[in-house]
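User: quick one
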Amino acid sequence: MTDLAPTIPLISDGIAPGAADEPAWLADLRRAGLSVYTERGLPTVKVEAWKYTSLAGLKKIPFVLDDGRARLPDGGDSDALALGPDDALRVTLVNGRLAGVPADLPAGVRIASLAHLLATEPSVVEPHLGRIADLADAPMGALNAALMADGLVVLVAPGTVLERPLHVVSVSNTPDGQARHGHPRHLIVLGDGARATLVESRVSAPGAADSLCNAVTEIALGREARLSHLRHVERADTAVDLDLTEATLGEGATYDTFTLTLGGRLVRNEARVRLRGGGASTALKGAYGARAGQHFDTTLVVDHAVPDATSDQVFKGVVDAGGKAVFQGKIIVRKDAQRTDGNQLHKAMLLARDAEVYTKPELEIYADDVTCSHGATVGELDLNQLFYLMARGIPEADARALLVEAFLDDVVEAVPEGPLREAFLGRVRAWQARRHATTWETS
Amino acid sequence: MALLEIKDLHATVEDDDGNPKPILKGISLTINPGEIHAVMGPNGAGKSTLSNVISGRPGYTVTGGTVTYDGQDLLEMEADERARAGIFLAFQYPVEIPGVATGTFLKTAINARRKANGEPEIEAVDFLKMMKANAKKLGVADSMLKRPVNVGFSGGEKKRAEVLQMAMLEPRLCVLDETDSGLDIDALRVVADGVNALRTPERGMLVITHYQRLLDYIVPDVVHVLADGRIVKSGDKSLALELEAKGYAEFTGAAA
Amino acid sequence: MAATQDTIDRIAEASGTYKYGFVTDIESDKAPKGLNEDTIRFISAKKDEPAWMLDWRLKAYRHWLTMKEPDWQKVGYPPIDYQDAYYYAAPKSKDDAPKSLDEVDPELLRTYEKLGIPLKEQEMLAGVAVDAVFDSVSVATTYKKKLEEMGVIFCPISEAVHRFPELVQKYLGSVVPYSDNFFATLNCAVFTDGSFVYVPKGLRCPMELSTYFRINEQNTGQFERTLIIADEGSYVSYLEGCTAPQRDDNQLHAAVVELITMDDAEIKYSTVQNWYPGDSEGKGGIYNFVTKRGACRGKNSKISWTQVETGSAVTWKYPSCILQGDNSVGEFYSVAITNNAQQADTGTKMIHIGKNTRSRIISKGISAGRADQTYRGLVRMLPKAEGARNHTQCDSLLIGDQCGAHTVPYIESRNPTAQVEHEATTSRISDDQLFYCLQRGIPEEDAVALIVNGFCKEVLQTLPMEFAVEAQKLVGISLEGSVG
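Assistant: Done. Structure below.
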């Protein structure tokens, strides 16, 4: 693995120093990933799955591989960067490295650093790592396999219910001003009947330099297991955040996600969910707000491999001047996956000139007894609604803000009621307030 | 000859797990030309199953007994053959067929009959005349005939359209499956008048209903009480009134 | 060929316009097998083309050599050997053709009967070597005369190259450039013939123009080229194809159609495509790789595509509209039926450039047997498309559990005042619907045809009347054997 082609970006500075005594299966995993990546390189718009999101710009940034030494900035508080206070168990990752494990975990729940487990108990992760995600057609995911050094491992034993949400705050930090790339790898396994809520905040430390976070999360849900996965992405304008989540669901399992993306130069949230057991169900929902210089990409694939599973995708987003949003959603219904119920909706609002949105909602269906639909709309604020509010004396800017909030809040309601939903709504309001202020100043 | 003769009919339907579930457990009844028979019974007694088995709906398995229609073995016939032989089912829940105008649908059905009988297709003018005359009688607006089959029809419109189809297709045996459900009193009267107009000495009817109310308007010759897949009592029209007064429990021997 | 030649002579006499063009070369040999610059020179020489036409063909050919056959579409077919084909051939000699209908696929004959096609026409469609083929010749020439008097030009494009070179030079390749895509570029290099229509300013063409009225039609099949120009304030409705399944010995078809509308002009282009789909395994069926595109150049202009696609083994086709003129309108109405082993990847592109441009897409896809069908569409709102609107409705119906139906729409918006709405559904014929029809005495195959026709109604009703009736019958016939 030493004679790397220097022309392929991101691996020219060497690969993660895998321990010399790494188990063979792990070395194989890395080798396979490296081979996919070196063959395909950085995806360009010529690759269908990346048609609207180019990574060509990454070549120009002199990234070095993160060395794992970065810590939270002095006095840094991950709370302040994340969603805000909540009643969750808190785990912090800096550049993908686990910075501590909460004490007093309930029995049956194990939270550990991937690096630690690979070094000490590789057999714990071996049955799952690299076996949930199929990275043959995902060059960036494959690069992650080659370079992964650390990440979060959550194992919930069968029948165990994790009452408090687990809040993972992923901070990217570049204390020395050097552009860094890192490849966190997370593994979430819920045994039969287990339940958990996972909250993820992906943020940047103040003043961070260019960064690339190329994460892969593998999720396996056993029979009747339930995972609620809530994500808040608000990186700095210097950050490129590529996230690939692959989940497989057993019989009767439920995987519900909500993703709110409000910050980052380029953010791609890619999720592939495989429904492998009858009665499995997934709801992939989210909202985004993109402004100048930001490019947010949501790419979803729901794969109905068996009969009687249900899926629902709902995303709403607003794009301000100079912002760009991409939504690609796909429902695959395999042969024999009868009685599938699969739906998808994407609604985007362009708030100003020079805003762009690209939508590709796809159905690929090989079974006849199915109910599948998709809908997509792109437009501006409803001028009738705007006029109605103004006719009631509300100034135009306030009325616009109100309508944008209402548009997004509608889907934020996918977050279960309580402090978490309030926290998410709070982020939407803060985004809107900032936008409002800027508009005010410049107009 | 009897128009319809059912002897010891047993039938099952597949439950959600794919296992056969017995619904009809030995039904016998004979309808002669000109007679109206009412079948009453609580929910789950097998009333709709009986109408579905007579009309040949897929998903029902006859496990015993015979059904003879006009001397022929009805169970050997496909659903569309039965219909062309003169069996008409007025659906409890008429089905929507988007994009197919009610008029077109009826013409297709009439011509399917004619073709099977080796007759030429109906003349467009004759068809229109016939449809308009029938529609008028049933208070069905011309505009409804241009709308797709049952699409966007109100509950009352759907039932009226069923009776209109019945009048147009001139069946020998009419099976009315809870035709009164979802109708207000005015609509019920219109529908019942339409049905009564079709009473002839040659035609038989099987009226399936949960309530006695419909039988005030369509007066039956024979009333059967169906419970748990069996006919537990038969009698004349007074049986319906008795049933109304005492409730089903009296007849089924259980809380129905 | 005596009688055929006689027919041609009669037409030539009547219209006085067949001096040039492929007709005079009808008895010539075919070009040698394979594709190279000499083949193209041969074709051009046979057609006695001016130098600019040959230059354009050669430019296209040289560009084609640099292109790769597309592989993104969701269809599969064995590799095509472009050197193992003839690119110019006079009509087949009678020796190779079936001698009588007895030698023709009985399935095909059964379909002709169902559609009520007269015996003579059956022979013509099946490619039987018959003598007098054109019963409708006198009708056709009468219409042609009438059209010419009104100033409508409607003739083979090879003829237009000679008679109206300035129009052809100005517009040919102006919507689908020679470098557009692999199959269109190939067409530019080797096209044999097709229709040319020019409707002058302010004229509403009083009759549907149909390839049916255009003579010597049979041999333009493989690389057909059509160019229609509607000048300011004019209107024309053009019908292409025919409901009867047509056979062709050339498996690869790569046609190009270009439409141009000036201010306030409208073109309505209707197609019924029923090329031979092959046997139930798809063997021997036509590959139909078509590029159709219209440019609404003028303000308030309109282009409307309606297609009923039931034939071919493989269909690859995206009739599109470039909405340049302010307030211009693009429409795409499509019914695509695939049965047995047929594959279709079809849809449209609506490119909104001008202000207040409008587009409407209604696509109804029916997949049965082991067929695979994809709707692929693009709606693009460019930054200056102020107030533009698109509505797309895209419905798929599956019949049986061995087929596939796929929807791949691309929606791109760069103008906040533009509105795009896209809806798609996938369903099957419900057991309840089928039983309801059966209970009214309608046999199963007729019931399926009835329900599917209902499903397609919004599209079929946009077809010209006589076409619509035939298309309805065709829907039923195309789905035969798909249930039960």
